[in-house]
Write a structure and sequence with these properties.
By secondary structure, the protein is an all-alpha fold. The protein contains 6 helices and no strands. It has helices at 17-25, 28-39, 43-72, 83-100, 106-120, 130-153.
Amino acid sequence: MFDSDSGSKPTNKKLPKAVMMMVEKGNLVQAIKTLAADENITMDAAKSRIDAYELALKNKQQQTLNTIANKQGIPSQAFSFDREQVEEESECLIRSKVRDTPSEQGFQSLQDGLDNQLNSLGYKKPLLPYWVKRLLVIVVIMAGLFWIMWRVFG
């Protein structure tokens, strides 16, 4: 585990393929447990090796992204791997959208949005809603039964 020439620094051996795949998929807990079990090292040592690999992987991806962006003429500030910054921006955007919608228009705006969506799909509203047709059928059947009973027993 320790190099003979460095004394107290752990060796930077390459991670097993299965552990690399777990790290790339974001399954860090399982990767740490697997690495610790496979190489018989502590969880802290496994975590530090995986963190180093993850950092190297992110740096490599960032360099690749920068290279592609430079070829296409996109400024490198236009993208970032910083998830916290992206989450904060999306939360601010969501809050501003929520504030822009007045609460007293809630149901009406929902109805208008649904009508607009149905119109864009080419849906035509029926002349009589389905529940009115069903109620009409029930009333006609009840009237027919009443008339038959009136004629038979009346």
